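User: What would this chain look like folded?
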Amino acid sequence: MRSFGLTGGIASGKSTAGIMLREADSGLILFDADACVRGLYEDEGFREEVCGVFGDECMGVDGLIDKGYLREVVFADDGMKRRLEGLIHPRVRKECLAMQTKAVHSACASLFVADVPLLFEGGFDFGQEANLVVAVSRETQVRRLKMRSGFDDATVHAILAAQLPISHKEKCADVVLWNEGPRAVLESQVKRFIENNRS
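Assistant: Here's the prediction, encoded as structure tokens.
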């Protein structure tokens, strides 16, 4: 079974490409790092560890981690950002490897793809043979992020500054899926990738 990494920048359409990959090949196993992180934040033990690092101020009135508060803290302090990543990244990689191992032993799995936003930034290695990047222009990223999340300019630029520019990720990629055009254009690129790499 062949394994690939999938990444892009925020608002590039990476998650959409992941859905298209699954639709194009029913045997493809997709690991979603974002979903994994959401699950971590629902885990009481993990929340306690986060509070141990960031203090009780990071806990919302609903008893869950206030992600907006955490975002402000880590964007303002690289040291705290690294500490949060130190809590998250090893757990995400462990879950990714467990899913990959399960896929390897599955008779019907054809491909394994790990959708990881910080694939290059975090040096996320799970033995993949190649990496795909979903790419758009910086202007498109800004426009989509504002429309999707309603963030102000300062927040948008802080979020983008925390990630490698897509132009840099393109240089690190083995396959680039360009997502500036209609949805059908991205779909055709995804289908071509599947046809060329299906086991």
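The domain at 2-197 is CATH 3.40.50.300 (Rossmann fold). If you want, I can go into more detail on any region.
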